[in-house]
Amino acid sequence: MFATIFMSKLLPLNLALFDVMNTTADANLTPEMHDYYVGVLEDSAEPKLVHDQFGDDYNIPANSGKTLIFRIFSKLAKALTKLVEGITPAGNSISVTELEATVDQYGDFIRLTDVLQLTAVDNLMVRSTKLLGSQAGRTLDTVTREVLAGGTNKMFAPNVVSGTATDVLQRADITANAQLTADLLIYAVAKLRGMDADPLDDGSYGAIVHPHVVADLMKDKDNWQEWNKYTNRDALLRGEIGMMAGVRFVQSTEAKVIAPAALFGTINRLTLKTALDGTGSVTIAVKEAISAAEAAELTAKIGAGTVKIYVSGKEATLSAVTAGVAGSATFTVTAAVQNVAADSMVCGYGAGKDGSAIYCTTLFGAHAYGVTSVRGGGLEFIVHQKGSGGVSDPLDQRSTVGWKALKTAERLTEENMLRIEHGCSKFSATAKSN
């Protein structure tokens, strides 16, 4: 598969901000101050953008619309029919698939009061800019990550207990024993190569991995290589920490983690209080307290659609929740749950049946996806000094600092990327979604 980009002329919009890093500021902010704050924002944002670095960079020129149209050209089948002397063959035709990606705008700001700036010990403008830079980086990185997480090319790590591996065919069956290993990476690389996935320039593949998972990889001292054993700082990828099985790993807390769905608030895992025998019960008592507000939140979810839970790995559909202090709160399900021991896991749906969080480690070859550029373009820094608010700030009490950016990403060649879904030996039982 080969990707060529064409710019649509739809929805004309001035996108000049893609050409340079912009700063919007008041006249009393000097050029030196402009440059300083832009540098602080960029430096704070850039380390967070690890999901962009394996993608092909596409900028929309000014006044060219806000929709990218990627044209994907399919490979031609082998021409194995022998030519007959003097006879012109039928020939072939090009197969093209168009993919559209539209940029969206993201941003935020911090309001600083005159009193706060007069009394605070720290330079709040610098602090705010660093905080906003980090937020911008994480936000724009997540935009790309969520596109990549929808990739259709995936594999599951097997559950390995006492040396015996059991194949996993669906996400719900992944446990903490389904770890990312050198053997699994060898198969993953073989799968990519079997699909003719173009490697990176040095012949390896890249991958983005969560720090929790790095702990599992580094325990394999026979296969794990620290970055300084095979490359130097000039060739180091952003966030790169090591290599295994021909895969160069970039570490990020933004590598996708899928935990059980929250039942209410951020709570997604509870503990069964009373064992369920062979007869079973539709009443699921939990050891933890459930407040009236939490019960109301979950009741609203139940009223809006189907809400499923797992009780010791057994799927159940909620019909009601009853608030109570620790040990007296209960769930009601639509069908009796049987043969479950006390102290078993009761958790939300969407990850492992046993409450395990799912870690997604994605491997990338070249030209797998496209992204809009951020560094040097697309990210705009905006500061309004105290006194610039006019009638909306008649006493010169407020200043603001903020950012905004246009961003999109698109998977171009599914065969050039592979998502491995797996658990983690130490952290699967407690990790949260990110």
Describe the protein:
Helix content is 18%, strand content 31%. The protein has 434 residues and is α+β, with helices and mostly antiparallel strands. The two termini are 32 Å apart. A hairpin with a 2-residue loop joins strand 17 and strand 18. The chain is globular, with a radius of gyration of 26 Å. The protein has two domains: 1-75 and 95-259 and 352-434, Alpha-Beta Complex (phage-related protein like fold), CATH 3.90.1690; 269-348, no CATH class. Strands 7, 10, 11, 12, 13, 14, 21 and 26 form an eight-stranded mixed beta sheet that branches. Strands 15-20-17-18-19-16 form a six-stranded antiparallel beta sheet. A four-stranded mixed beta sheet has the order 2-23-24-6.
Features:
phage-related protein like fold, single chain, 434 residues, 2 domains, disordered N terminus, eight-stranded mixed β-sheet, alpha+beta, globular
What are the segments in which pLDDT stays under 50 over at least 5 consecutive residues?
A: 1-28
Q: What is the helical fraction, as a range of percent?
A: 10-25%
Beta-strand content: 25-35%
Radius of gyration: 26 Å
Name of the CATH class of the largest domain: Alpha Beta
Largest sheet at a glance? Answer: 8 strands, mixed
Overall pLDDT metric: 86
Molecular shape: globular
CATH topology (level 3) name of the largest domain: phage-related protein like fold
In the residues, how many domains can be counted? 2
Number of helices: 6
Distance between the termini: 32 Å
